[in-house]
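TA notes, week 10

Several of you asked for a full example with nothing omitted. So below is the full record: structure tokens for the whole chain, then the designed sequence directly under it. When grading your own attempts, check the secondary structure regions first.
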């Protein structure tokens, strides 16, 4: 069986980690940013140099195609994303995308002709940090979201999505435009686990069978700006008091009630943000996750109730917006079986697991058979500049992806 080239893959990961590198050893390569465009260009140039064909669609999803014997067959799709969190790690997304490119290079080096084409994809804006929602490119690819709804979205830095999308497409004139959502035979995504399970059990490969559900809420309390020193409690319409009460309940009551529940308040803002002014408005986000759709909906309702009650108690207006609603998803048993068979053939231990993070495969899995391969990351840390994966796990993950791609690209 062809083998990945460890040195080439590790060098590639280092090359891309340099694009948007942060002093603490992570990356800041946010979606549709200058750094994101630089990474896309580097990958596209490497693909063209290998004789692969480069495509983009209207969501700026980037595809690198290595033809197979039968061009009439839908290609096998492998890959992930290149965008990162503002203080992200070097492996979230990049590992899957660059390992997928290494698969194409290893097949080319070995002169292997696959039955069907294999395409590598870098989906646009998986993280959803700069522009909400996350998984924007894969949702658009799967028809699960509408780009026209998002074009007017403002980034956290004020940029308009439509402008950044246009700039990204124009920055890669060598890429052929193609209609969004072309047929693929299957999709396999290699990714770091972003949790502690594989490392704790010392298992090199996770066979991901499902992804838990996610809801993103944006909550805004509006009260009345007033003087910090002269306004007694009974005169205050203080949105920070409402937010503090709501967040205390989310963290202290709702989450501890269910070991599978994950609730995170990741972003909070107060206006006018002056030290001696009672805020007029406080907004914050809640990321709610659960493997079970019914429990997820129940937690959403509970957060609504607690926020409405806190707003009323502090005589504030309460506005709650659902920004992202990702139902839990199960992956295709034939694809997970191909991953398990490959691990057996390579004598690599593996175990089935559910993903706590959402991924592009969750949406591609709605239009094609899909599954994921996880590798351990140190202390389960991710979305953190200290994110780390050992060379051995990187190579095991990429070699497993190569074996699965060979199985699934036979005509
Ligand atoms: O938030 C997530 O689950 C993904 O890592 N962006
Ligand atoms: Mn990711
Ligand atoms: Mn991520």
């Amino acid at each position: 069986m062809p083998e990945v080239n460890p040195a080439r893959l590790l060098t590639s990961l280092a090359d891309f980690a340099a694009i948007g590198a942060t002093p603490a050893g992570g990356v800041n390569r946010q979606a549709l940013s200058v750094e994101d465009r630089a990474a896309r260009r580097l990958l596209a140039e490497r693909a063209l140099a290998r004789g692969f064909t480069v495509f983009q669609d209207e969501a700026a999803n980037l595809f690198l195609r290595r033809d197979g014997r039968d061009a009439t067959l839908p290609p096998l799709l492998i890959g992930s994303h290149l965008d990162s969190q503002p203080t992200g790690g070097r492996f979230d997304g990049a590992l899957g995308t660059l390992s997928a490119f290494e698969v194409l290079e290893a097949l080319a080096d070995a002169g292997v002709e696959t039955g069907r084409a294999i395409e590598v994809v870098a989906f646009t804006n998986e993280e959803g940090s700069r522009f909400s929602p996350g998984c924007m490119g894969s949702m658009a690819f799967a028809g699960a979201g509408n780009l026209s709804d998002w074009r007017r979205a403002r980034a956290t830095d004020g940029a308009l999505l439509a402008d950044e999308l246009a700039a990204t497409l124009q920055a890669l004139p060598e890429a052929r435009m193609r209609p969004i959502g072309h047929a693929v035979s299957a999709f396999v995504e290699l990714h770091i686990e972003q949790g502690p399970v594989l490392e704790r059990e010392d298992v090199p490969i996770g066979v991901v069978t499902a992804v838990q559900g996610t809801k993103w809420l944006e909550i805004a309390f509006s009260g009345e700006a007033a003087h910090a020193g002269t306004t007694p409690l009974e005169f205050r319409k203080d949105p920070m008091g409402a937010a503090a009460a709501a967040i205390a309940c989310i963290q202290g009551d709702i989450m501890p009630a269910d070991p599978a529940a994950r609730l995170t308040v990741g972003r909070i803002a107060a206006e006018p943000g002056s030290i001696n002014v009672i805020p007029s408005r406080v907004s914050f986000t809640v990321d709610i996750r659960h493997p079970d759709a019914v429990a997820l909906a129940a937690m959403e309702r509970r957060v609504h109730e607690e926020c409405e009650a806190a707003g009323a108690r502090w005589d504030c207006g309460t506005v709650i917006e659902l920004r992202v609603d990702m139902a839990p998803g199960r992956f295709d048993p034939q694809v997970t079986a191909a991953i398990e068979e490959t691990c057996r053939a390579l004598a690599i231990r593996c175990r089935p697991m559910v993903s706590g993070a959402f991924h592009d495969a969750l949406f591609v899995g709605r239009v094609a058979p899909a599954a994921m391969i996880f590798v351990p990351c140190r202390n389960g840390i991710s979305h953190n500049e200290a994110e780390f994966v050992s060379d051995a796990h990187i190579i095991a993950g990429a070699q497993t992806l190569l074996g699965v791609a060979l199985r699934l690209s036979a005509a």
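The chain has a mean pLDDT of 97. Use that as a sanity check on your answer.
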